[in-house]
Amino acid sequence: MLKKMTTIHWFRKGLRLHDNPALLASVEENCELRPLFILDPWFVTNARVGSNRWRFLAQTLADLDIKLRDLGSRLFIARGTPEELFPKLFKDWNVQKLTWEVDTEPYSCIRDEKIEKLAKDHNVKVVCRVGHTLYSTEKIIQANLGKTPLTYQSMQSLVSRMGHPPKPVDSLSSLPGSCRINNAMAVNAKYNLPTLAELGVDEGSLQPCLYPGGETEALRRLDKYMMRKTWVCKFEKPKTSPNSLQPSTTVLSPYLKFGCLSPRTMYFRLLEVYKNNSHTQPPVSLLGQLLWREFFYTVGAKTPNFNRMEGNPICRQIPWVRNEKLMKAWEFVFEELLLDADWSLNAGNWMWLSASAFFHQYFRVYSPIAFGKHTDKHGEYIRKYLPQLSKYPDNYIYEPWKAPLSTQKAAGCIIGQDYPKPIVKARHHLQTETLQTRR
Question: Which residues form the Photolyase/cryptochrome alpha/beta domain (predicted)?
Answer without folding.
Answer: 5-134
